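Hi support team,

I submitted a single chain yesterday and got back a structure, but I'm not sure I'm reading the token output correctly. Could someone confirm the output below corresponds to the sequence I sent? I've pasted both exactly as they appear in my results page.

Thanks,
R.
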Amino acid sequence: MNKSNRGFTLIELMIVVAILAIVVTWGYSSYRDTVMKANRSEGVGELLTIADKMERYYADQGRYDTAVLADIHGTSSENGYYSFSITSADTIQFTLTAAPQGTQADDAKCGTFTLTSQGTRTASGTQPDRCW
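Hi R., thanks for writing in. Yes, this is the structure output for that exact sequence:
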């Protein structure tokens, strides 16, 4: 009598499930990094827009210290991933910040972005050289 084995053994199924788990974990982390990077570009772009609006405000008013962010732009990004603030301003210079909020608050690579009227760009995260 010739018996033919059909199907998979439990060990074979466990190996396949383990390989799938590894692939899914790697794929999810790559996806999450890509989403964070896209959200970062929104925050950086709007921060640069605010700096441009501050320069226009200076051209009209001759000073930065009377600028109100809510009047010239708004205090959060379009999708709500960053909140913006004027952290310091006097008559001739300003410093703007974009702080991550919501799901973007987990962005440890870049953290909070800072931009000055002199064009100095910094980030508070673990890899700030890759953020701007």
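A quick pointer for reading it: The radius of gyration is 24 Å. Let us know if anything else looks off.

Best,
Support desk
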